[in-house]
């Protein structure tokens, strides 16, 4: 038999990587990471009123919705198989003050939305945030005293807000304000109030990022913010500090960890999953969404392909799921409906 060994065989030691890539069926057979609808959490923006669907200019394809409209959107999400939604309110300006006191109103917008969703679509999870930025007149996530965001007073208030959110039916509290000790304090507060089954998804590593601009437009805090949030968000340069921050949340009783933003911090996703083994999530934030949308609308990129590629990369980085404004579009694509 004629020896058909090629120089390439000798160079590679007869190990050719392309053998597993030669056909669609082999590529599917050896695929390491998979994205399914079960990986998707849909963040939605709630506004006062009825029959309101208000497009957000900086986030093409994303609307602010009144509770009644959002109920129907959440029902569609559940029908697509999306496991959970995360709610963010755009509070009327006259209800915002220096301390974010409206967060402590039983029937505020975020709690009203939770009640409506759990009544109309009981099979979908509701994740709520207790940060005060939608409620403050200065746009910060905590209580402002002089020029300082005060830690301990803010923690006391978010514990109260978390209990009210649990009473409204929230399944998971996801505190994003990055105050020291808030995970342990919320856990103790929830347990004392009888909400042992309400989970805590810690914004374990929330970075002081340039990617939040469209979100701040969506909840109408972009023109309110006094100063910046660097005294409580993590410096983008600090990976080890981020892991230490997450370790505190784990010790204090977090059930799940979140990395925010997502794409610029895939290394942190991997490090947290490797270090702690807890369910780990990434938040593909508004700026990430808007960059992809802008590129697609200008014809510079294939928006659908990049949407799916970025979502898949979170799975490769060790994430168990992704909070993403693409959730409904991705769910439809995964179901073969687009």
Automatic annotation (TrEMBL):
InterPro entries cross-referenced by the UniProt entry: ALAD, ALAD_AS, Aldolase_TIM
Annotated CDD domains: ALAD_PBGS_aspartate_rich
Enzyme Commission identifier(s): 4.2.1.24
Keyword Ion transport (UniProt): no
GO cellular component, one term: cytosol
Pathways per UniProt: Porphyrin-containing compound metabolism; protoporphyrin-IX biosynthesis; coproporphyrinogen-III from 5-aminolevulinate: step 1/4
Family matches, as Pfam families: ALAD (PF00490)
Keywords: Heme biosynthesis, Lyase, Porphyrin biosynthesis
GO biological process: heme biosynthetic process
Top-level class of the enzyme under EC nomenclature: lyase
Active site per UniProt: 206 (schiff-base intermediate with substrate), 260 (schiff-base intermediate with substrate)
Sample GO molecular function, one term: zinc ion binding
Catalytic activity: 2 5-aminolevulinate = porphobilinogen + 2 H2O + H(+)
PANTHER family: DELTA-AMINOLEVULINIC ACID DEHYDRATASE
Family statement: Belongs to the ALAD family.
Quaternary structure annotation from Swiss-Prot or TrEMBL: Homooctamer.
Name of the protein in its database record: Delta-aminolevulinic acid dehydratase
Organism, as annotated: Ectorhizobium quercum
């Amino acid at each position: 038999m004629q020896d058909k060994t090629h120089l390439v065989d000798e160079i590679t030691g007869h190990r050719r990587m392309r053998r597993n890539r030669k056909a669609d069926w082999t590529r599917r057979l050896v695929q390491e990471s998979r994205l399914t609808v079960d990986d998707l959490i849909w963040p939605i923006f709630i506004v006062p009123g009825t029959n309101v669907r208000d497009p957000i200019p900086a986030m093409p394809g994303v609307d602010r919705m009144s509770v009644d409209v959002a109920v129907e959107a959440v029902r569609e999400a559940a029908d697509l198989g999306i496991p959970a939604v995360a709610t963010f309110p755009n509070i009327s300006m006259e209800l915002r003050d220096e301390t974010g006191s409206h967060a402590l109103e039983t029937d505020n917008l975020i709690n009203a939305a939770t009640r409506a969703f759990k009544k109309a679509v009981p099979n979908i999870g509701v994740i709520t945030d207790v940060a005060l930025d939608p409620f403050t007149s200065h746009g910060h996530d905590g209580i402002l005293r002089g020029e300082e965001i005060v830690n301990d007073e803010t923690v006391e208030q978010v514990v109260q807000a978390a209990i009210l959110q649990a009473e409204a039916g929230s399944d998971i509290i996801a505190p994003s304000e990055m105050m020291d000790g808030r995970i342990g304090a919320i856990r103790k507060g929830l347990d004392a109030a009888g909400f042992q089954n309400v989970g805590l998804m810690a914004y374990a590593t929330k970075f002081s990022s340039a990617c939040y601009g469209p979100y701040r437009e969506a909840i109408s805090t972009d023109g309110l913010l006094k100063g910046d949030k660097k005294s409580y968000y993590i410096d983008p340069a600090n990976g080890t500090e981020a892991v230490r921050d997450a370790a505190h949340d784990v010790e204090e009783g977090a059930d799940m960890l979140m990395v925010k933003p997502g794409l610029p911090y895939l290394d942190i996703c991997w490090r947290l999953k490797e270090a702690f083994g807890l369910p780990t999530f990434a938040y593909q934030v508004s700026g990430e969404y808007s960059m992809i949308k802008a590129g697609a609308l200008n014809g510079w990129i294939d928006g659908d392909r990049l949407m799916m590629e970025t979502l898949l990369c979170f799975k490769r980085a060790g994430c168990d799921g992704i909070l993403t404004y693409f959730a409904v579009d991705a769910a439809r694509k995964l179901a073969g409906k687009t």
